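To the team - acetyl coenzyme *A complex, inputs and output below.
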Amino acid sequence: MIATKGLEGVIIDNSEICKIDGNAGRLIYRGYDIHDLASSLSFEEAAYLLWNGDLPNREELKDFNDQIVRQRSIPESLNTVIRNLSTSSNALDVLRTAISTLGVKVPLTKPDMADAIAISAKIPTINAAFERIRNGHEPIEPRDDLNHAANYLYMLTGSSPDPVKVDALNKYMILLADHGMNSSTFTARVVASTWADAYSAVVAAICALKGPLHGGAPAPVLQMLQEIGKPERAEEWIRNELNSDRRLMGFGHRVYKTTDPRAQILREIAEKSAPKDLIELAKKVEETGIRILQEYRPQRKLYANVEFYSAVVMDSVGLPPDLFTATFAASRSIGWTANILEQVANNRLIRPQIEYTGQIDRKVVPINAR
Ligand code: ACO
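Output:
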């Protein structure tokens, strides 16, 4: 008997990391509502919470920040690997290759907190190095005195980042840090459940993040907004898209049957960080998209998802569209590794079955008689 196509509604284990209430539109990390976390924490505090279960006190946070800062640099040999990739490569493919390269040096060991910190600390450095190299510049060393979000923007540009952009990116990174049993986190847990190392599990998660039904949606969302161009063109563009049997990027969710709480918060962030024209256009496209999707798919409740305003926020902080999903990975690496650690702490191999619907009892005919 098939559980449900796409494993919808299937609960694979217990977890104490993240709760989603899809009907109420609530997201909770370790007992704290995402609204509270995004409004008051640094990304580092959120990472500490997701990995350790509680918020850090001042001393714990200082020690934790020091550990992250120490792990930010990447070896020159990795910059050489990145230089040898085509400048037209997809940034997420480069990130996948880079994490895989770092993992080659690691013996097959049980994932631990040191792996979680090392991987998550290095992702912004890898993304920034590729962005610099493909534009003909040298990579910039991370700065010890900047927080995670500020240092990422600094490594991309070489100049001190605007505090409004740092705040927007910091909040974005908290909001995207974890999200229950999404496809990439499930993939990470499957790989970790085979007793593979943390780097292998994260590489697999990056692969699962790539597609537009999951983490690959924000760049197409920005492209949609650019193609629509003006609020008055939204209706015609969206109808044309749906009449052509294409999905509207940045709308719909497997779990949320109401507004995704992250989309609401990201809209508020975008209102502060994005140009007025773009945010007005995005709001019009959101409102029109919800209305028209209700007409085309009356049996579904389709709202803007996290990727819709993620695209606007990431554009507003100066990230190129090709770095959107790789930046999502910089944030979600916290959730991936928190789940990897939880999986290995109480492991059982994840190994479902599939219902065979092919033929049986066929006889092999010799090749010259086929
Ligand atoms: N545009 C048009 N139709 C849609 C959309 C959409 N954005 N989302 C769902 N539908 C329709 C499907 O076409 C399908 O219609 P049908 O029953 O007539 O064939 C129906 O709703 C159900 O679709 P499923 O794929 O089964 O729904 P599911 O809940 O599994 O989908 C998903 C969730 C994949 C996110 C979907 O809403 C989608 O494709 N959205 C667009 C891509 C996107 O925004 N991806 C980012 C997701 S957020 C994240 O992963 C971080």
